[in-house]
Design brief:
GO terms for molecular function: ATP binding; hydrolase activity; RNA binding; RNA helicase activity. The chain has about 800 residues and is α/β, with parallel strands linked by helices. The chain is about 55% helix and about 10% strand. The chain has six domains: about 70 residues; about 130 residues, no CATH class; about 80 residues; about 100 residues, P-loop containing nucleotide triphosphate hydrolases (Rossmann fold), CATH 3.40.50; about 120 residues, Rossmann fold, CATH 3.40.50.300; about 110 residues, no CATH class. A hairpin with a 2-residue loop joins strand 1 and strand 2.
Length: about 800
């Protein structure tokens, strides 16, 4: 059976990799062309030996297989046709001298005829001319016969080529259909197995089947909700239209007044016309005055354009510039106290007897005392009943917070930390969704009106302060505010928490604080600077939980991880610049990036609440109240709407969910992102042209990795380098937290990092060198310290490699 050219090239490339150890497209093309010019497998084997291959049994088998698979042009011509073609060529060669001699004979006859014309009579002349015409007619007939024979031969050859091409296309189409049907059967089998596996691993609820009346009632309610949604959209659209119409009518009224003043200037108007003109002016002035009063409120507004009738007011422009200059470089920042977040005194809800008994407990029972001081304690019976009655789910995406929760649970249960996950073997275990800023109503509606159980948190009153004007450099403003609080407030009054966007800003702020406090010496109390971010070593992260010495103040420089996941004792002052780093995905370019973006109102309130955990606190927001109420979104954009969906689409396809555009997402992602994810999976051969999962796609779905990394692992088996590629994929899955670059040893850290790039190798080869070197030292921790590499990240890469290798064995 002859193969398609693309499949044949891939097969020859794989065989050359086994025989020679390398393969190039030009070499593959040369070998295929060489096989077409040979007449037998032994002849082809001799030519392969001549170009450098060894005459082994593998080479002989390769020669026989490729000779059978390579299509040949002359395969459709039998022996009789070939003999007929050779005879036709021979006749054509023989006719050339015969035509020459015939032409010469005719010329001589014409000369003789001319002489006879002069010698004989007119009758003989006519007979000679008849002879000449007969000779010309015979020559014309011969030419026509030759042309007819030639066209007949060409038409036969063209018909043979069309038949051969049609048969090959039919064979290719049949092979493609068979392959697609085989993939479809395997895909259905995979969907069935995955559904059975998930069904066996998940506890099934014994819910009664709804009756026909209940189904009709559900349909009626769904239709009613859709009608209510349409009415709401209609009202919102009407309000937006009225705003635009008001502005348009105001502009029309102004144009009418200006036109009448220009057209009737110096013309005496009647009393009715005068009343109408005055009425229009009064209406216009009232509306204009109302809008100006709304604009002149005590709040921040965007600067004006400084243009009046095409001219630029330079004095006004530079006056505002000087005002901005003072705001940027002032030593202090002016704040406005805007509001106070009320606290929740949960201890008042505790029975007096329980408090007295809690105070009388011994030190041995301190854990039980702590339980009674928790905000959840008064609601313990209601919570246990809710957990008993309803199905609940739990999420905790942050590793640091998950570690803290695990340590607390192990302390509560009195067991060792690090037991096997047995939730799938214990269907009676239930989990909980818990968050301080979660949109609970949204989740409740999505999960069929699930009940909501609210527990008020332990929070003291918090004063909210805004700046008078926006700050041009929020990093410098945060440092100035921290020093301002440290100098003006008594030491020991409370610690400071500063929210920044990432490691670079935290290290810069740490340098500035150290530089400014070092110059003041003993004039100010001691300021302890404690950074906290993901790439920081664990022993340095633990410093933020150490108690502050007497007479000193601690300032914690943290990312948004300190918003909800960590509770640091002693924090009284919070500085909120209003920014955070958020992962964003651009479907058009296919690139993910971390962008500094404004936070949401929910995040701002959560940051402010950090200062009211252990006592009354203050939150200093480095933006105006106008920015908070008008520029910030209510909630953070869901991650599914700003991330690459290729992995999600691959998982849904493997579960048998094909209608992705109409899938019931809680927060539907953009359609463009879904289409780009499908295009990427098609380019990786995970989907066929009909959007169905292929055999390669089913193998890629088994790996807990990005689809591109999964395809890299699948393709590595063909080149026999799976172990190296799995190591690279495991290191890439860890992210950018492999290297540690301390401020005081940057040169040493950069030198150690460049040593892994010896030979001008790329990042992937360097990561492979790092993992191989660490493995050769028997996974030494000291080796990581000497090369400025995070031990925690390397251990996580080791776990990832073990899980990937297990997935490779299953697939």
């Amino acid at each position: 059976m002859q193969w398609k050219m693309g499949d044949l090239k891939a097969w020859v490339s794989d065989k050359l990799m086994l025989l020679l150890g390398y393969s190039r497209p030009t070499v593959v093309q040369y070998v295929i062309g060489l096989s077409r010019t040979t007449s037998s497998p032994s002849d082809f084997l001799g030519k392969l030996v001549d170009i450098g291959l060894s005459a082994t049994s593998e080479t002989r088998a390769f020669a026989e297989e490729i000779f059978a698979k390579v299509p040949r042009k002359a395969s459709g011509i039998n022996l009789y046709q070939r003999q007929e073609r050779e005879a036709a060529l021979l006749v054509k060669k023989q006719r050339r001298p015969m035509l020459f001699w015939r032409l010469m004979t005719t010329t001589m006859m014409l000369v003789v005829a001319l002489e006879m014309v002069l010698m004989f009579l007119q009758l003989l002349r006519q007979e000679k001319m008849t002879l000449v015409r007969n000779v010309s007619g015979r020559r014309l007939i011969i030419r026509k016969m030759k042309m007819t024979r030639h066209h007949t031969f060409v038409n036969r050859e063209e018909e043979r080529r069309v038949k051969r091409r049609t048969s090959q296309n039919e064979d290719d189409d049949s092979e493609s259909d068979e392959e697609r049907l085989r993939d479809q059967r395997e895909r259905e089998e995979l969907e069935r197995k995955m559904k059975e596996r998930y069904a066996s691993a998940t506890r099934k609820l014994a819910e009664p089947k709804p009756t026909k009346r209940e189904e009709e009632e559900a349909v009626r309610r769904s239709n009613a909700l859709e009608e209510d949604g349409i009415d709401t959209l209609r009202k919102v659209s009407r309000q937006e239209y009225l705003k635009k119409r008001e502005q348009k009518k105001l502009e029309e009224l102004r144009d009418d007044i200006e036109d009448e003043q220009y057209l009737f200037d110096g013309v005496k108007l009647t009393e009715a016309e005068y009343r109408e003109m005055r009425y229009k002016k009064e209406i216009y002035n009232l509306v204009k005055k109302r809008s100006e009063e709304a604009d002149n409120t005590d709040e921040y507004r965007m600067p004006e354009a400084y243009d009046e009738d095409g001219g630029v007011n330079q004095e006004k422009r530079f006056a505002v510039a000087l005002q901005r200059y003072r705001f940027v470089f002032e030593d202090q920042i002016d704040f406005i106290k805007a509001s106070v977040m009320d606290g929740v005194n949960f201890e008042e809800e505790l029975p007096t007897e329980d408090l007295e008994e809690s105070m009388a407990k011994s030190a041995f029972e301190k854990l039980q005392e702590d339980r009674k001081t928790l905000p959840m304690y008064p609601y313990r019976d209601e919570l246990l009943q809710a957990v008993h009655d309803h199905q609940i789910g739990c999420t905790q995406p942050r590793r640091v917070a998950a570690m803290s929760v695990a340590a607390r649970v192990s302390q509560e249960m009195g067991v060792k930390l690090g037991h096997e996950d047995i939730t799938r073997f214990r269907p009676d275990l239930k989990l909980l969704i818990s968050s301080a800023t979660l949109d609970a109503e949204k989740f409740s509606d999505y999960f069929d009106s699930a009940p909501i159980f609210k527990i008020p948190g332990r929070r003291f009153p918090v004063e909210i302060h805004y700046t008078k004007a926006p700050e041009a450099d929020y990093l410098d403003a945060a440092v100035v505010t921290a020093l301002q609080i440290h100098v003006t407030q008594q030491p020991g009054d409370g610690d400071i928490l500063v929210f920044l966007t990432g490691q670079e800003e935290i290290e810069t702020a740490e340098e500035i604080l150290k530089h400014r406090t070092r110059g003041l010496g003993t004039k100010i109390p001691e300021l302890i600077i404690c950074p906290i971010y993901a790439n920081l070593p664990t022993e340095l992260q633990a410093k933020i939980f150490e108690p502050t010495p007497e007479g000193a103040r601690k300032v914690v420089l943290a990312t948004n991880i300190a918003e909800t996941s960590l509770t640091i004792d002693g924090i009284k002052y919070v500085i909120d610049p209003g920014f955070c780093k958020m992962k964003s995905y651009n479907p058009r370019s296919g690139m993910e990036s971390l962008l500094v973006t404004p936070i949401s109102k929910a995040s701002a309130n959560q940051r402010a609440g950090r200062s009211g955990r252990t006592g009354p606190g203050k939150c200093f927001r480095l933006y105006t109240a106008y920015n908070y109420y008008n520029d910030l979104d209510d909630n953070t954009v869901p991650e599914i709407q700003r991330t690459n969906l290729a992995n999600v689409v691959l998982s849904l396809k493997s579960l048998g969910i094909h209608d992705l555009l109409n899938f019931d997402f809680m927060d539907p992602p953009p359609a463009e992102a879904l289409l780009k994810a499908l295009e990427l999976l098609f380019a990786l051969s995970a989907l066929n042209k009909l959007g169905e999962l292929t055999k390669v796609g089913r193998r890629m779905a088994e790996f807990p990795l990005d689809p591109m990394l999964s395809k890299m692992i699948v393709a590595s088996e063909k080149y026999q380098c799976s172990d190296e590629v799995i190591s690279i994929a495991a290191m890439l899955s860890v992210g950018g937290s492999i290297f540690y670059r301390p401020k005081d040893k940057q040169v040493h850290a950069d030198t150690a990092r460049m040593n892994f790039h010896t030979g001008n190798v790329g990042d992937h080869t360097a990561l492979l060198k790092i993992y191989s070197s660490w493995k050769e030292t028997n996974y030494s921790t000291q080796w990581c310290y000497e090369n400025y590499i995070q031990v925690r990240s390397m251990k996580r890469a080791k776990r990832h490699k073990r899980s990937i290798r297990g997935a490779v064995g299953k697939s």
